[in-house]
Specification:
Elements (H helix, E strand, L loop, with lengths): L1 H11 L1 H10 L2 H7 L14 E3 L10 H10 L8 H15 L6 E4 L2 H12 L5 E6 L4 H8 L3 E6 L8 H6 L6 E6 L11 H10 L4 E6 L25 E6 L12 E4 L2 H8 L9 H12 L1 H24 L11 E5 L4 H10 L2 E3 L9 E5 L3 H14 L8
Parallel strand pairs: 1-10, 3-4, 3-5, 5-6, 6-7
Antiparallel strand pairs: 2-8, 7-8, 9-11
Bound molecules: pyridoxal-5'-phosphate.
Length: 382
């Protein structure tokens, strides 16, 4: 805890430390909250703001379980599956038959593509969005229709619905959306589902659920389900729970739909370490609240820093921010890379936007230091 703060001040130099304590808003927060050392730095010391991870890693209780679970690395994990499924079911007040878990929520997306797509079927997705579903849809020979987001960066649900014809398929909803960090209103999603032709399923990807907060626009389809066989909701342990490297995601659907997905999973595809760690993580609601708070504070500070530089990011409901640089994104990404700051990849067609994951206060400071070296011209009043 102390070492992290000490490093932060060291990077500023001793003389700057007092000034930073006075002006840098995180000084207050750092005093109030126990900071574990950030675990994002790789062997080359890069600041990793490119994959929307939790920069603090799993909280202490979960770490303790991870450490002790390694001792049973010689065992196949299947005996953990029943308690894990029950735990997730209890957590969401659903039946265990409704829960399917996989190697990251990416596996859930993959099995949904295998179950509901194929030659002659159609994936309808927003654009830009998280690309995994597009990838799997192409892999199984489905047609992919990408529908541009609206001016407010919501899914254009009417346009998406207008493509839902032919022999059926899958609609992919990413809410909040990656990479734009934006929300699509709950009510509009309900309307989409109520009008959907019988031959279409909907996968609602809630990977960033915890960061969406109390917005009146947002309500999880797990917390407040709609009674429809065709709705699948996915979540992940990679974001708020800080376990992207351990790989666990899950979905909630009706028992019949869950069964269709389950038959396509890799057998024993979820490892025994994350199975145990996830159960501990679900018990630790205090850490979830702490991470949400840290993220909200870091996000607010990001917007403050952006405003001071006349930059106006898209309103963020996640642990990352997207903003228009008015310059080719690949050039900006490369310039950051040269300074050892990794930011998100290109997201066509938003070719001048960059996506920045929210890291620790120290990492965000490194981001803005690198930004300031670029001397980008921003249009007035954009
Ligand atoms: C929207 C969205 N869905 C799913 C995933 C996949 O996450 P994982 O496979 O780690 O659960 C990601 C990863 O960044 C994501 O952004």
């Amino acid at each position: 805890m102390l070492s992290s703060r000490r490093n932060f001040f060291r990077t500023l130099g001793v003389g700057a430390a007092t000034t930073a304590a006075a002006h840098w808003p995180f000084a207050e927060f750092a005093r109030a909250t126990p900071f574990e050392p950030a675990r994002t730095q790789d062997a080359h010391g890069a600041v990793r703001l490119n994959s929307n991870e939790n920069p603090y890693g799993p909280p202490p209780q979960t770490m303790a379980v991870i450490r002790s679970a390694i001792a049973s690395a010689n065992r196949y994990p299947f005996m953990d599956y029943e308690p894990l499924g029950q735990k997730i079911a209890d957590f969401h007040h659903v039946k265990p038959e409704q829960v399917v878990f996989g190697c990251g929520s990416s596996e859930i997306l993959r099995v949904a593509a295998f179950a509901f797509l194929g030659p002659g079927k159609r994936l309808i997705q927003p654009s830009p969005t998280f690309e995994a579903m597009d990838h799997y849809a192409h892999g199984v020979g489905a047609e992919v229709i990408s529908v541009p987001l609206t001016k407010t960066f919501a899914h254009d649900l009417e346009a998406m619905l207008s493509h839902a014809d032919g022999s059926g398929g899958l609609i992919y909803i990413c809410n909040p959306n990656n990479p734009t960090a934006s929300l699509t209103p709950r009510q509009h999603l309900e309307t989409l589902i109520s009008k959907l032709p019988a031959s279409y399923y909907v996968l609602i990807d809630e990977a960033y659920h915890h960061f969406a907060g109390e917005s009146g626009m947002y309500k999880s389809f797990i917390d407040q389900p709609v009674p429809d066989e065709r709705v699948i909701v996915s979540r992940t342990f990679s974001k708020i729970y800080g376990m992207a490297g351990l790989r666990l995601g899950y979905s909630i659907a009706t028992p019949a739909t869950a069964k269709r997905l389950e038959t396509l999973l890799t057998s024993d595809g979820v490892n025994g370490i994350v199975s145990k760690a996830a159960m501990a993580a679900l018990d630790d609601s205090d850490s979830v609240r702490l991470f949400v708070k840290r993220n909200a504070d870091t996000r607010q500070e990001f917007f403050n820093q952006a405003t001071a530089r006349m930059v106006k990011p898209i309103d963020s409901h996640t642990n990352f921010v997207m903003m228009n640089t008015y310059h080719p994104a690949e050039e900006i990404i490369e310039k950051f890379h040269k300074q050892n700051v990794l930011i998100g990849r290109r997201f066509p067609p938003m070719d001048t936007y960059i996506r920045v994951s929210l890291g620790t206060p120290e990492e965000m400071k490194a981001f803005w230091q690198a930004w300031d070296t670029l001397h980008l011209d921003m249009p007035m009043g954009h």
